[in-house]
Amino acid sequence: MISVVVPIYNEQANIESLLVRLTAALGQLQRPYEIVLVDDGSRDNSLLMLKAAAHLDSHLTVVELTRNYGQHAAIFAGFSQVRGEIIITIDADLQNPPEEIPRLIACMEVGDYDLVGTVRKERKDSPLRKLPSKIVNAMARKITGVRMSDWGCMLRAYRRVVVDHMLRCREHGTFIPALATYFSKNFTEIEVEHFARQGGESKYGLFSLIRLQFDLVASFSELPMRILMYGGIFMSLMGISFGVFLAVLRLAYGVKWAAQGVFTMFAVLFVFVGLQFFAMGIIGEYIGRIYREVRKRPEYVIHRIIRKAE
Ligand code: UDP
Ligand code: MG
User: 57 CA distance to ligand 1 centroid (A)?
Assistant: First the structure.
């Protein structure tokens, strides 16, 4: 059985063609399939449309979350409900064509892979949306040591085992592509077409992208803390040498020169104060995360599951 998981947040403009195209692509496979549609607290008509569709088609399962938890949490909620052996994730906005799903599955089965990712051939997004992704991709490669080229593309196929391992992770703020590669034995990537969003708009602004980036970095490494530490050591060494330098000049040129150096000191001070705030921010981020883990609040709450009565 094939399970497709789609996170949906205010996608009323896309739902109809999404379901038509998904159903067509999956029907072609001649295998049992299910489509798990996770409504991530949409405030438009998405949920109504999904419910109506689920009442007509027994392939559909609608997972209704109590509020908006974010794309990755929504996918996890979907994972918790899937029954298939092969699981596919795809965005609702049709930027990744559902027609690529059969290729994804074929690749997985022919090569006996447990994870097949996709690379967006020519990405159709605004430059402002692409730049942060470039940074995310470069950092993700560095941090995880996995040579995956496109981490943001959510069109992926997973074997059941990989999803089970992911579900067993009781951590928050996980970055699904990174977690999946972490648990996969052999993964590969294929190129897929990419299109501009069919309707509606991207749910990721600059701040949610920064948040996502931190999810990735913080859950996979202590890199920011280490940079901070080395940076701190370097800075204090610089500070000490600079102090020595000033003292020597003060002795050589007398009091007058030193008074004129006051502003230099201010400048130095500002740099340090700035760095300290930056450091506190990073430490605060980790403490916040620890606090969240300790609280053990569930990452998502399913309000209801809607399926067509058999
Ligand atoms: N999404 C979601 N919850 C959110 C934000 C997004 O379920 O809080 C879904 C959204 O409906 C879409 C997918 O995640 O199906 C990807 O979102 P989007 O297309 O806005 O991201 P982008 O393509 O800009 O990376
Ligand atoms: Mg999109």
Answer: 24
